[in-house]
Amino acid sequence: MGENGLLEMNQENNGRGKVEIAPEVIEVIAGIAASEVEGVSQMRGNFAAGALERFGKKNHGKGVKVELSETGIKVDVFCVMKFGVSIPSVAQKIQDNIRQTLLNMTALETEEINIHIVGIQFESGKQEPEIEQEL
After folding, report:
1. Strand boundaries in 15-98, DSSP class E
2. What pLDDT, on the 0 to 100 scale, is given for residue 45?
3. Which helix (H) or strand (E) holds 1?
4. Which of 8, 18, 71, 134 could disulfide-link 2, Cβ–Cβ 3.0 to 4.6 Å?
């Protein structure tokens, strides 16, 4: 890990300079990769992210926490699943998609990708018809 919390890329000395990746970039990549998986309803954010989205600013890193350590990159993903999906299967797909996307875009290996299911989204358009009871 480099100065100011930036992740330095391991490259041979070619005289062109160095490449550093901010943790926020990894959060955005992981957030987009997680939201692409079928079965994920939404990513959990905090109050500030929700307020910014109301003003039209899309926060692609919401619901993702990245921790850079000497041993590697740890990613925590907080998401809401759609009702009726297999949670273990979707969680595995999220882990695989994040791992592969980070490897393709940054050439970085992740140490851990932890999936936290914080809710279930029920279908809001369909409602059960109410049965009237006769007294």
Report:
1. 20-21, 40-43, 64-68, 73-82
2. 59
3. none
4. 8
- All structural domains of the chain with their residue ranges: 19-121
Are 83 and 122 in contact, with CB atoms under 8 Å apart?
yes
Closest CA to 72 of 105, 19, 109: 109
Angle, in degrees to the nearest 10, between helices 23-35 and 87-106: 140
Task: Output the pTM of the full model.
Answer: 0.74
Q: Which two tokens stand for residue 17?
A: 């300079």
Strand boundaries in the chain, DSSP class E: 7-8, 20-21, 40-43, 64-68, 73-82, 110-121
Name the residue among 105, 52, 116 with its Cα closest to residue 80.
Answer: 116
Top-ranked range on mean pLDDT: pick from 5-9, 16-20, 111-115: 111-115
Beta strand residue intervals within 18-129, DSSP E = 20-21, 40-43, 64-68, 73-82, 110-121
Separation in Å, CA 60 to CA 7, 21, 90, 123, 134: 20, 16, 19, 23, 52
Determine the distance from the C-alpha atom of residue 37 to the mean position of all C-alpha atoms in its chain, rounded to a whole number.
10
